Amino acid sequence: MHNLWDQQPNESAKAFERFALYRDMGAGRSLRKLAKDIELNASTLAEMSIKHNWQERIAAFDAYIDKASQHNQIAQVKAMKRRQIALALRAQKVAEKGLKRLLRNMDDEQLLRKLSPEGLSKILDTSCRLERLNRDEPEQNVELVQQANYDRLTLEEIETLRNLHVKAEGRA
User: Fold this and answer.
1) pTM above 0.85, yes or no
2) Whether the Cβ atoms of residue 35 and residue 42 lie closer than 8 Å to each other
3) CA 112 to CA 57: how far, in whole Å?
């Protein structure tokens, strides 16, 4: 299969070499810059560009590179998700074994004496988060007061305001 950015049947080796130099300049390419780099008259290079349809060929090449980059990125994201899911499943098994052992070796009274209030709170928070995630519910409910002035805030500023509100109510 012949690609538009490959050497064309009516294109000399020298013309293709110049096209390849132009093609490989990347997003910042320019005929003037290439002309200066190879010490050639810019108008001569422009004529060659028109004669051999460089702009269409460059557009096809850039589209090909972009598509290949997208496919590569998608493949990397899929591989990352597979790795993270496998790791999460292994971690869940370890945590489940540890929890079963803890429950088997202690009665409720012993558990309460062993675990600090912070530890119990963390277990409760984690289990509630997992339930929400598995029910496709958001992890946090962010309520915003509908006032015109809030429209000018960034998401970061809104989050800071929410945190201050939580702290003021004594929930932090």
Assistant:
1) no
2) yes
3) 72
